[in-house]
Amino acid sequence: MKETEKISEDEYLTCERRHVFFVLMGVAGFFGAFTYSIRGGIFCNAQTANFVLFAMALGNAQWKHALYFLVPMSAYFLGAVLSEALPNSIKKLQFIRWDTLFILIEMIVVVFLGLLPESAPVQISQVAINFICSMQYNTFRQARSVPMATTFCTNHWRQVAIAMTKAIRHRDAAYLPRMTQHLCMLLVFVVGGVLSTILCNLFLGKAIFAALIPLMIVFIDLLYADLKREKGALGRIPHGH
C-alpha cells in the first residue's frame, strides 16, 4: 500500500492539497517567463544558473561580474532562512498559519513589482522574485505526502520518468497517479509561462498583476481554513517540515 493511501484525508491540511500546489506552480511559471521576457533575460525561480554564471565569471577573472551574482543568490538564501525561522513565531499567534501569511506577502511583492516604472532597474524585480520563490519553495513542500517543488520543473520531469519506468517494469498501474500529478505540475507551469509571455507582450511590467488572481484564490482558501475549517489545527505541522 502506498504511503499516500495510508494517511486519511483528514490528516492533510489545506496547505497540502494538490490544487494549492498546482496554482503555485502556475504562478512560478508566470514569474519565470516574466523575468526572462522583460526583466533582464534571466530565470529567478532557482539558483543553479546563477551558480554556473558565478563560476564562469570567476574562471574568466571577471571579479565584479562575479559579485553581481551574489545579490540574487543572497536574496534566495535569505528567503529560505526567513521561511524556516518565521513559522514558529507565527504559530504562537494562534491566528493564521505561516503558509497563509506567506501568500499575503507574495501578493504584496507582486503589487510592488507591478507598480514599478519600466525605467526601474531590472535587478529590483530579479531580487524580489528570487526572494519570494525561495520562500515559496521552502514553505510548500509536499502535496498529500508527495514531495513537490512549486518553483521549478527538473524534479517533476525526473519523477515522471521514474514512475513511468516502474509502471512498465512492474506492470503496475499504481505508479500512474503519481506520474500524473507531476505531469500536471509541469503542465500548469507551462500554462503560467505562456500566459505571462502573452501578457508581458501586451502590458510589459503591469502584466505581473495577473498573478494576483490565482494568489488571491489560494489566500482566501487558506485563510478560510485557518479561521474556520482548521481553526483547531493551527499548531499542526505540514508533512515534510
In short:
The protein has about 240 residues and is mainly α. It contains nine helices and two strands. InterPro entries: DUF1275 (IPR010699).
Low-confidence stretches: 1-7
Mean pLDDT figure: 92
Please state the overall shape, judged from the principal axes of the Cα atoms. globular
Proportion of strand residues: under 5%
* Terminus-to-terminus distance: 23 Å
Q: Tell me the helix content.
A: 55-70%
Global Rg? 19 Å
Count of discrete domains: 1
State the total count of DSSP E strands: 2
How would you write the strand order of the largest sheet? 1-2
Tally of individual helices? 9
Structural class: mainly alpha
Would you state the CATH class?
Answer: Mainly Alpha
What do we call the CATH topology? Growth Hormone, Chain: A
Which architecture name does CATH use?
Answer: Up-down Bundle
H/E element string? HHHHHHEEHHH
Largest sheet: 2 strands, antiparallel
Transmembrane segments: 20-38, 66-86, 98-116, 183-204, 210-227
Keywords: Membrane, Transmembrane, Transmembrane helix
Pfam family, one: DUF1275
Protein name: DUF1275 domain-containing protein
